[in-house]
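Handout, section B. The chain below has 130 residues.
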Amino acid sequence: MTREDYERYAAAFNARDYDAVFDFYTDTPKMAFFGITITTREQLRTFYSFLHSYVRETIAIEKFASSDELAAVEGLIRIECFRDLTREDLDANGMEQFFPIKAGEVQEMRQYIHYHLDHGKIASVGCALV
């Protein structure tokens, strides 16, 4: 995966094009972050469709490095809430570990993301926030 590949991936994510996002993954990926595990195209669509019906989430790439087996990204994740996301909404969608956010609130967080690659496609994802 090159920097240009990842920029296309981030652009698809920022545009909410979940099919284009999933096309960067192997047929059986493992995305595990903040207690959520996603292994199928439909799980990815369900998770992000719900979340993005409350917030606009964007990735700004700051640093990128890759090899045949790993891509590492340091970036700024911006969350802009346009509709109250309540504790009840989160709990009802299996996101008990997430925090509520109110319309108008903006959060920015530094995120470190490791993508394990298989023949240039993402096989698994791990990330940490600062």
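Note. The chain has one domain: 3-129. Compare this with the example in section A.
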